[in-house]
């Protein structure tokens, strides 16, 4: 029986299984593998799989990273998932330099190792790109192209919900709330697959605490409720700042921990967070 070696890392409780592409047999579907290994009852259990591959020297990046959701769909990007992947490279001593360029479906991201807390436990800063606000780039279906999608009311069941949207590597729809007593999970599930979002969407519910701090709850596309999310934290911070609710440097508090987001004046998003090793093992194919 073939066994695939893996390591499981987590960023603020948002856990990812990291696998090297060379370890996956040629006749094995990555989507099928992800669905089985991510199952929390019959598999290892995680919020997704990060598949790493070393690139040639002439490539503009050092490694590529494919993020696959627990339902088998491919994500454009994952802030926590890619951070877990970079942590894997340091843990396995496959990469020892402070900086690393990672190719993703949403472009090349730059990672900087800020601190090694202990073997398998790291802090990173990542440049993850610039936010996209145009309706076609999110994407969201509108009657006509829109430069920004802010305070847009869409029908959900018998009610209308005001959403704000941005693409930060993945589409993110945000709902500003006063608290989390309502059924945000049910609303998140409905919004994820709402007809307004042709590629589905991540959903984040935001409670603004002050101009530098927000609290969030997260419903991720293809994964459901998660304790943290780099892209959702980024989207929440960007939309909070864009709508004038906060400054451009925001601490995003989620059930798993605090992610620091800085939206620089040149439009680049800086994401700071940690990645921690849970364990390594083998998955039988």
Give the gist of this structure.
The chain has 285 residues and is of the alpha+beta class. The protein is 15% helix and 45% strand.
Characterize the structure shown.
The chain is of the alpha+beta class and 285 residues long. It folds into 2 domains: 3-129 and 274-284, Diaminopimelate Epimerase, Chain A, domain 1; 149-267, Diaminopimelate Epimerase, Chain A, domain 1 (Roll), CATH 3.10.310.10. 15% of the residues lie in helices and 45% in strands. The chain is built from 4 helices and 17 strands. The protein has helices at residues 30-38, 79-91, 184-192, 230-242, and strands at 3-11, 14-20, 49-54, 63-68, 74-75, 99-104, 107-118, 121-127, 149-156, 159-167, 171-176, 202-210, 213-220, 224-226, 249-254, 257-263, 269-284. It has an 8-stranded mixed barrel with strand order 1-2-3-4-6-7-8-17. Strand 16 and strand 17 (269-284) form a beta hairpin. The protein is globular and about 55 Å long. The model has no long low-confidence stretch (mean pLDDT 97).
| Strand coverage percent | 35-45%
CATH architecture of the largest domain: Roll
| The top level CATH class name of the largest domain | Alpha Beta
Low-confidence stretches: none
Estimate the global geometry from the Cα principal axes: globular
Residues in helices, as a percent range: 10-25%
User: Quick check: average pLDDT?
Assistant: 97
In whole angstroms, how far apart are the ends? 7 Å
Q: What count of structural domains?
A: 2
Number of strands: 17
Number of DSSP helical runs: 4
Determine the CATH superfamily of the largest domain. Answer: Diaminopimelate Epimerase, Chain A, domain 1
Order of helices and strands: EEHEEEHEEEEEEHEEEHEEE
The largest pleated sheet is described as: 8 strands, mixed, barrel
Strand order of the largest sheet: 1-2-3-4-6-7-8-17
Q: What does the radius of gyration come to?
A: 18 Å
The CATH topology annotation of the largest domain reads as Diaminopimelate Epimerase, Chain A, domain 1
> Structural class of the helices, strands and pairings?
alpha+beta
């Amino acid at each position: 029986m073939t066994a695939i070696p893996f390591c499981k890392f987590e960023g603020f409780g948002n856990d990812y299984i990291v696998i090297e592409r060379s370890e996956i047999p040629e006749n094995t579907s990555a989507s099928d593998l992800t669905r089985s290994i991510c199952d929390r009852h019959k598999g290892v259990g995680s919020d997704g799989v990060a598949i790493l591959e070393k690139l040639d020297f002439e490539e503009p990046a050092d490694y590529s990273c494919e993020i696959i959701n627990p339902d088998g769909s491919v994500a454009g990007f994952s802030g926590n998932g890619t951070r877990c992947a970079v942590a894997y490279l340091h843990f396995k001593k496959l990469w020892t330099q402070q900086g690393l360029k990672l190719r993703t479906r949403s472009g090349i991201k730059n990672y900087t190792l800020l601190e090694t807390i202990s073997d398998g436990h790291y802090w990173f800063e990542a440049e993850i790109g610039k936010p996209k606000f145009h309706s076609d780039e999110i994407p969201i279906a509108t009657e006509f192209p829109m430069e920004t999608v802010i305070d847009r009311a869409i029908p959900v069941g018998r009610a209308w919900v005001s959403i704000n949207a941005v693409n930060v590597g993945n589409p993110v729809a945000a709902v500003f709330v006063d608290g989390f007593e309502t059924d945000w999970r049910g609303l998140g599930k409905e919004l994820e697959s709402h007809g307004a979002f042709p590629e589905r969407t991540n959903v984040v519910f935001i409670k603004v605490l002050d101009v530098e701090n927000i609290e969030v709850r997260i419903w991720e596309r293809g994964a459901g409720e998660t304790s943290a999310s780099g892209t959702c934290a980024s989207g929440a911070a960007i939309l909070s700042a864009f709508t004038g609710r906060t400054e451009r440097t925001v601490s995003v508090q989620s059930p798993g921990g605090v992610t620091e987001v800085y939206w620089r004046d040149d439009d680049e998003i800086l994401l700071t967070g940690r990645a921690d090793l849970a364990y390594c093992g083998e998955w039988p194919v």
